[in-house]
Amino acid sequence: MKTTHSFVTPVLDSTQSKVNMEAYEQAIDRYNEGSHLEAFHLLLDHLNPEFRTKYGNAGGTEFHIPHGSILVNILVAGDKLQISADFLELPEKGRVAMLRQVADLNINRLMLPRFRKNGDTLKMEYACPLSQSHPHKIYFILRNICHIGDRYDDEFCAKFGARRSYEPQITPYPEEETIRIHEAIRQTCRETLDAVKEYEAERKYGYSWNVIDTAFYKISYFAHPQGQLMNDLDKAIDDMDKELPVAELVVKGKAFLEKLLAMPREELARDLYFVDTLVSTKRRSSLNNVQENFKDVYLEANEAIEAENYERSAVRILYKFYEMYFYNDVQDDLNAVVANALRKSAGKPMEEASEILFEALEKVMEDDLTADDGDEDEESGELGIAAAAAVEQVQQTAAAMQGEVVAMQAAMQQALAKGDMAEYMRLAQEFQQKMMEQALGQQK
C-alpha cells in the first residue's frame, strides 16, 4: 500500500455525547434525599435534556421514548415504576425457532428485564417500587432494554419474518447523501480489497487484518448506519476478533467487504436514516480513557518511525483512530484534532501520512487538543479561489460608494477573515442589492 486511503466526511457534524453528567449527579442526590420521581426526571435529563418534555406528559409520569426501531414506555403509577417495550409480533412460520432464541436472550443477555409473551406479541418488561429506582440501576435497565430491543428486532425480522409492533419514526438521509455514502462505501471496499491483495501476495496477514478492521470502523464512522446494516457491521467486527488463524479471519473479512461492495443502493438506503436514541450504544469519551487506549500504539508507532517503517505506523494509528469512533461518542475538541489528521493524511505517501497522524496522536497523549492555526486556513482555503473574483468586483464597486456601504464592506472583509463564508455571502448579496438600488436611483 503506497498511499493511505481516502477520507470520507461523516454524516454527523458532531460525535459528542449528549449525556449531562451534572444531571446524573443531581439525580443521585435527589434519590438519596427521598425525591424519587425528581431523581428519575433528572436521569432522563442526563440521557438527553430534550426527551422529558418531548416525549412525556405534563405531569412527568408517562413517557413514550423512541430508541432506534423500538419504543420505550415508562409509567409512574403511584409508588411504582413500570418500564416496557413492545418487541415483535411472532411470525406464523419459524416462531418456535425464534422463541428459542428469545429464551436464550432472557437467560444470557437481559439482566432484570424479561421478555414476556402476550398472545402473538413479545414485550420486554420491568417494574419496581419507585423507592427502589436508584438512577444507576435504572440507567442499566434502560440500556439493557434499548440495546437488546434495537439490535435483535432487525435481526429477527430478517431471519424469521417477524413483524414490528412499532413503526420507527425515522428521517431518511437525503437522496444526494445516500448516493454519496453508497459510493463512499464502495470506494472503501475497493481500496481495502486492493490493499489486502497486495499484502496477501507478501503474506502480510497482520496488515491485511488491520486494514480490513479499519475499513469496518471507517464505514461505521462516516455512514452512521442503522438497522440490519449496523448489526452486520457489528458482527463483522466481532468476527475479526475471534480466536482463529489470522489468514482465516482475513478471508471472512474479505467476504463481508465483497458483500458490501455488491449491495445495491436501494438496499443500503433502507438502513441510512436518522432516529432518536435513548441510551447510546457507545461510551462517553474521556481524554484519560482514550490516552490509556492509545498508549500501546503510541509506543509502537514511535518505534516504527524510528525504524523508518512508516507504513506500519500509519496503518496502526489509522486503526486506533477509527476504532475510537466505533466505541466512543467522541468529545468535540478531541474529534477536531483526530478528524483533521484523518482528512489531511488521506491519499498521502506513507511517510508523510505517518508524520501527520503521529503528530495528532502525540497531541492527544500530551493533553493538547487545541486546533492548529493552519487548520482553519486549510478549511477556509476554498474561499480563496471561489470568492476571489466576487471580492474584487465588490471592492471595485465599493470604491465609488460611501457611508453605509463602506461599513458593509468592512463587515464583509471581517467575515472573510474569519472564514465565515455563509455570513460573507449574505453580506455580499445585501451589498449588491444596495448597489443596484443606487444605480436605479441615479437613472431616475
Can you offer a commentary on this structure?
The protein is an alpha+beta fold. It folds into four domains: 21-164, Yope Regulator, Chain: A (2-Layer Sandwich); 172-274; 283-365, no CATH class; 382-443. The protein has 17 helices and ten strands. It has helices spanning 21-32, 36-47, 51-55, 95-108, 135-160, 175-201, 205-223, 227-239, 246-262, 265-269, 287-306, 310-327, 332-345, 350-365, 373-398, 404-418, 421-443; strands at residues 62-67, 70-77, 80-89, 114-118, 121-129, 163-164, 171-172, 273-274, 283-284, 328-329. The strands form three sheets. Strands 1, 2, 3, 4, 5 and 6 form a six-stranded antiparallel beta sheet that branches. A hairpin with a 2-residue loop joins strand 2 (70-77) and strand 3. Helix 12 (310-327) crosses helix 14. The chain starts with 20 loop residues before the first helix and ends with a helix.
- Share of residues in helices: 55-70%
Secondary-structure arrangement, i.e. CATH architecture of the largest domain: 2-Layer Sandwich
Our count of domains comes out at 4
Total beta-strand segments: 10
Radius of gyration: 27 Å
Structural class comes to alpha+beta
Q: Major sheet, described briefly?
A: 6 strands, antiparallel
Following the backbone from N to C, one meets helices and strands in this order, namely HHHEEEHEEHEEHHHHHEEHHEHHHHH
CATH class of the largest domain: Alpha Beta
CATH topology title of the largest domain: Yope Regulator, Chain: A
Beta-strand content estimate: 5-15%
Q: Ranges with pLDDT <50 over ≥5 residues? A: 376-403, 439-444
Shape: globular
Summed over residues and divided by their number, the pLDDT gives a mean of 87
What's the N-to-C terminus distance?
Answer: 69 Å
Put simply, the count of helices is 17
